[in-house]
Amino acid sequence: MGAIMLNLIEAITAIAAIAINLVAMAHALSGSLTRRLALAAIVGGWAGLAIGLADAGRFVFSPYIPFPLIGLFFAVPLLTVGVLALTRDDVRAALLGIPQHLLIGLHALRILGVLFLFEYMRGALSGPFPFFAGLGDVITGVIAIPLALNVAGSHTVSARAIARWNAFGALDLAVAVGLGITSAAGSPLQLIHAGVGSQAMQYLPLCLVPTVLVPYYLITHGIVAAQLRVRSKAGAGRARSQVSIIPA
């Protein structure tokens, strides 16, 4: 597969994945239409800003930039959603109210992580990063499909099974981010020197993964974990109430 064709496929799939996730989440969130459209505009604008800065070469690691913009784009969505969820009851309720099967099912798009392996084969990525990022994403995406279908169909799915999938998917992203940073040429934290490493992640279209898609998927993993915690607390509360009414 030629480099130009592969880049075109990556650009189309990255933008399509962002659009699908954005539309699905905006539709699923509770609240007025105006509020949901505002959210879509903010997220869409954020993705557009990432594309513009990447095109200008602002995501490339440089010794003159102590904190690269690519790191800022990764951290800001996570911190923003985390702070809002902790400080605003309406935001927390809206996030917890998103159907769990949707949150899980959208991870099926991570099957496209196989493109990292194609990039490795053509020499654009090297070292451990493309294998951990690519294979981990594919496994997460493949398992997400039957898991989401079972949850949506009200089939019996144990909270433990969902928690295990959720933990694996989140850990995969954390490992990929760590390997990406430590194998990127020019990174102040570079520890792995294996050819080109993860340098391609600093440029379009792959830079949309760490700046937009990875923060989004980490947020959804956090929401699923919070939903499981609320369900566990509710189950424990019902159990205590049932015990309390049993006559001595």
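(ticket continues) Second input and output from the same batch:
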Amino acid sequence: MRLIIDIGNTLAKVALFEDADPLAITYLPVLTIDALELFLNDNGLARPEEAIISTVRQSDDAFIDYLKSNFRLLLPTTVTPIPIKNRYSTPETLGFDRLAAAIAATSMFPHRNVLIINTGTAITYDLVTSNNEYLGGAISPGLQMRLRALHQFTQKLPLVTLKESVKLIGSNTHESILSGVLIATRAEIDGMIEKFNNHYEELAVILSGGDVKYFDKSLKNSIFAVPNIVISGLNQLLAFNFGKKNH
């Protein structure tokens, strides 16, 4: 049994895996020792022996010490062995969530060029080649960030709530903001997919992240929706380093 922890900008995702199968997953705005213990005790599963944590936030030393004391812990760094080649020119600035997603993508589509689009606080585009080389990609603001920016950097525009179905032509300010944010972002993603398609043959496209529901049925390009690709990649990385089969 493996404990997988992915702490993003908005939510912490915690999962238990048996080999390649996620048996339990929870999402928390703040992950504490008490919250983790509650999750481990309430799911009715065996206590994990191994753990991995990836975080884009400042590390909590007390929490890390707890993990080290209770599990065989893998804290990924730039020197951690990985099953793909990392060609990013500044690996020390690369979030391990992006690299984990690339690791999972190569196992889903071996010997294929794969574009992974993660729609969370930011929208990231990451390319891994058919030669198992992670090249990098692009980062743009996520949906909530765009909505908040319109509100915070103007005096009169309201902060609106996202909906999956919006009008192309807004008949009021609320609808106009939704059109400008959601429909324009969908066009951005479709445009980026087409640009990557022009450079990489037989490209597979994976869509993931917390905002996947706003895009998976509306993009004109063919995509594979995989909501939890990062935790899947972290599980594979843990298995790769600790010598157990992951599938």
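Agent notes: The longest helix spans residues 173-199. The mean pLDDT is 91. Closing as not reproducible unless the customer responds.
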